[in-house]
Amino acid sequence: MKHYEVEILDAKTREKLCFLDKVEPQATIAEIKNLFTKTHPQWYPARQSLRLEPKGRSLKDEDVLQSLPVGTTATFYFRDLGAQISWVTVFLTEYAGPLLIYLLFYFRVPFLYGPRYDFTASRHAVVHLACACHSFHYIKRLLETLFVHRFSHGTMPLRNIFKNCTYYWGFAAWMAYYINHPLYTPPAYGDEQVKLALAVFLFCQLGNFSIHVALRNLRPAGSKTRKIPYPTRNPFTWLFLLVSCPNYTYEVGSWIGFTIMTQCLPVALFSLVGFVQMAIWAQGKHRSYLREFRDYPPLRSPIVPFLL
Amino acid sequence: MADCSLRPHVHWAQRHRELYLRVELSDVKNPDVSIADNVLRFRGRAAAAAGRVLSHRQSVAPRIYMWGTFPRPSVCLRRAHKAPLCPLSQPHLEAQGHGAKGDNIYEFQIEFLEPVEPKPVCRVTQRQLNITVQKKESSWWERLTKQEKRPLFLAPDFDRWLDESDAEMELKEKEEEKINKMKIESRVPKDPFKHLKKGYLIMYNLVQFLGFSWIFVNMTVRLFILGKDSFYDTFHTIADMMYFCQTLALMEILNSLIGLVRSPLIPAVIQVFGRNFILFVVLGSLEEMQSKAVVFFLFYFWSIIELFRYPYYMLSCMGIEWKPLTWLRYTSWIPLYPLGGLAEAVCLIQSIPIFSETGKFSLGLPNPLNVTIQFSFLLQMYLIALFLGLFVNFRYLYKQRKQHLGPKKRKMK
Description:
The complex is a heterodimer.
Chain A: E1 4-10, E2 16-23, H1 29-39, E3 48-51, E4 73-80, E5 84-86, H2 87-106, H3 125-147, E6 155-157, H4 159-179, H5 190-218, H6 246-262, H7 265-292
Parallel strand pairs in A: 1-4
Antiparallel strand pairs in A: 1-2, 3-4, 5-6
Helix pairs in contact in A: 2-3, 2-4, 3-5, 4-7, 5-6, 6-7
Chain B: E1 9-14, E2 18-24, E3 29-36, E4 39-47, H1 73-82, E5 103-111, E6 121-124, E7 129-134, E8 154-156, H2 164-187, H3 194-226, H4 234-248, H5 250-257, H6 265-283, H7 287-290, H8 294-318, H9 323-331, H10 333-358, H11 375-405
Helix pairs in contact in B: 3-4, 3-8, 4-6, 5-6, 6-10, 6-11, 8-9, 8-10, 9-11, 10-11
């Protein structure tokens, strides 16, 4: 069995960083990354991006050395992706924050509202309902992160955690402040409005959960295969007929429901910003589906049926 | 009797449709060229030309052997020097005829092989005279003259000579070029609204220019008359015209949006919205702000910049460039933009306390939207955005300046 030699150069300076000899032809990029870490411990595998060209595409961990267009001496170019943090860590942090922050405002912890309101409860029923819905939403997200989602990438750059947490925590505090304020004004159409909003909210929460489960079942444990998602027996997944990313659609729907329920402008703004961001993600995902699969259903739109 | 007319060298070439005759005479004065009965008659006065031919009424003895077969004048010249002199039995015949100081009269006649149009076209240059004759029918002639023997003064013009097949190819190429040109022209869509658009832009820029010059002149005159006191009621007198001009300036965004004008959208949006915000919201809604001195400076700086900008646009719409104006338009912003920005910042800073005291445009709890809006806080954020916007516009204007006033590599926009 012929062994390969692997040489790793820095993509920017072209200096030789590492030379590995006697590498098995069946070795995967992941194993090569592990070997590279041994010589440079500060660059753990998640931080490494190995490519065939200095400005080329990053090689995947599953790629086998033998299948790559390299000779018996393979040259890889290395780029440092910067400090990485796992997706699970990021998600848990960014969802735990709003959960706790909202509760701080709900219980009117000192220094948030005037001293005469400390630890008092709001006299409106809708405020208690809103707290329940908000907390339910974030608990659901935390549980999904732990038990449902299968991530394509293990890590993301470290600076993302600061960006994401600022966004989630900041908006949560801003919303919670007004909803739990002593001078809060309940919805103009009273109970009718609240009931309708609650129905919408619950419907979309269930839908969102169903999509997450359906996506999980597409991909066996530990694999990173990509397949076209299709509607299943669950009626909530029938939105797959019209939309590529129904999880985003349901998410926007939930927040619209929450806005109507609380009739609070900061919530509306949060929904709007979230919609814009998710629309961008959905467009990207839709495009990559179209690129990857020839027989992708043509009826589907990225996020809003027939429109967007 | 001796006929002392001299024959010039004539070189000829043909195409399917026309004949070219090149008469080798320097500085021909008042040439007389005409065609009658299919005969071209030439008569002209010129200084002695190199290597001219002599001729005489009687037929020349074959010994005088000059230009008959060799077309190249230089060769002929040499030969001429070496040629034996003609027998001197005809005393009026001269070999080279240098002796003639000053001008001589040159004449020749050619009877054409086939019918030609009786309108020859002459072009006189310092060294020769070109005659172009149109053939009546398009054909290829085997010789120029009706007589079979070629006249001694006539020779082929190798510079313009083409064989029949080459001439055909040349014709074909010309046809193709014409077809291509028509194709290209039909591809570029002619804009039916071009004049309308131009007229509208010129009118818009003119109206704005008039508006701002009214403002500028009015403010200057009042400054001279009232001095510092004019600062305090500037708004009162000028505001209506300024409202009008700045509202009209919204058209600039529209123009950029629909592509009527080629300038980019974002600097236009920043400028128009920035100014209108200060004018309508900060100044317009607060009585207290309207009597502040900063208003004078603000309006003055705005109007000076516009005094250069709008005429420049107007002239460029009409295709005229007045260099001093171009320079002014692309240089005056350097002092005026920062000063204008500073004046706007002072307006904002002075207005923030007023907004927080009066609570104008602010929303407090309780309210149905369950939100609080502190307008003074928003203004503080806007102050930061103001400097960012100024910076973006600076960069854009600097780039424009380099483009228009820098090394003249590109054409004006």
